[in-house]
Amino acid sequence: MNQKSHWNIAYDKTDTTKLGWYEENCTPSLDLIKKCTLEKSDSILNVGAGATLLIDELIALDYKNLIANDISENALEKIKTRLGANTDKVKFIIDDLTNSVTLQHLEPVDLWHDRAVLHFFNTKNEQDAYFKLLNKLVKPKGHAIIATFNLNGALKCSGLPVHRYDEKMIAKRIGKDFDLIESFNYTFHNPSGDTRAYVYTLFKRK
Ligand SMILES: C[S@@+](CC[C@H](N)C(=O)[O-])C[C@H]1O[C@@H](n2cnc3c(N)ncnc32)[C@H](O)[C@@H]1O
């Protein structure tokens, strides 16, 4: 099965709140976003957004230039259904981060945000494509937040193998044009009560 079908089925067959990565409280991301001292009009690209409540939280905080990407249209539909009349406050882009068609033509953004997406890219080609796109799309002085399973993290998520990182590994891959501003390990409690070990990183472009 290809990636797109895998994720479409995952979002189709399971209630959003029961998904292993469902996060009721996006505090670690919001804390790092606060540190970026963005203007409300600055652009925030949420890659592999899934059905995340972070979008709702950012709308509530009055951010006006939100972009939600995912490979799965079913995932983004969940956000649209939930947002109702607020749907038009978000630009939705269905695209594959490792083989981008639409995203690569996007205007550069002030913030790239990824929670629980990069670790699904297991081949060098996929990882290279991801970081190439990130480098293309983050403005000078812009920020990138990347949260992945850390080196003590699970070996699989959603039945798929993952590639785990620490902050130094992410720093090496994102490249010398970005400074690591902050990183921390974070234990996420998923809806079934299991724990998942993440590393959160905040980078600023030179
Ligand atoms: C574990 S979920 C995390 C979703 C969301 N970031 C969150 O924190 O709730 C991983 C997400 O990455 C998306 N994804 C996987 N591969 C992708 C790709 N190649 N391009 C874009 N999105 C992808 C999946 O559809 C899924 O929504």
Structural features, described:
The structure is a single chain. Helix 4 (73-83) links the parallel strand 2 and strand 3. It is built from six helices and nine strands, in the order H-H-E-H-E-H-E-E-H-E-E-E-H-E-E. Helix 1 runs parallel beside helix 4. The protein is α/β, with parallel strands linked by helices. The chain is globular and about 45 Å long. The structure holds S-adenosylmethionine. The site of S-adenosylmethionine has 20 residues, from helix 1. Residues 3, 7, 21, 23, 48-50, 52, 70-72, 75, 96-98, 115-117, 120, 157 line the site of S-adenosylmethionine (SAM).
What is the level-2 CATH architecture name?
3-Layer(aba) Sandwich
Structural class: alpha/beta
Which of globular, elongated, flat, extended, rod-shaped describes the shape? globular
Percentage of helical residues?
25-40%
What separation lies between the terminal Cα atoms? 40 Å
Tally of alpha and pi helices: 6
- How would a textbook summarize the main sheet? 7 strands, mixed
Strand order of the largest sheet: 3-2-1-4-5-9-8
Radius of gyration: 16 Å
Number of structurally distinct domains = 1
The CATH homology group name: Vaccinia Virus protein VP39
- What small molecules does the structure contain? S-adenosylmethionine
Return the string of H and E elements. Answer: HHEHEHEEHEEEHEE
The residue ranges in which pLDDT falls below 50 over 5 or more consecutive positions are none
**Could you tell me the mean pLDDT?**
97
CATH C-level class is Alpha Beta
Q: Estimate the strand proportion.
A: 25-35%
Question: What is the fold's blueprint, element by element?
Answer:
Elements: H1 3-13, H2 27-35, E1 43-47, H3 54-60, E2 65-70, H4 73-83, E3 90-94, E4 109-115, H5 124-137, E5 138-149, E6 156-157, E7 160-161, H6 167-174, E8 178-189, E9 195-205
Parallel strand pairs: 1-2, 1-4, 2-3, 4-5
Antiparallel strand pairs: 5-9, 6-7, 8-9
Helix pairs in contact: 1-4
The protein binds S-adenosylmethionine.
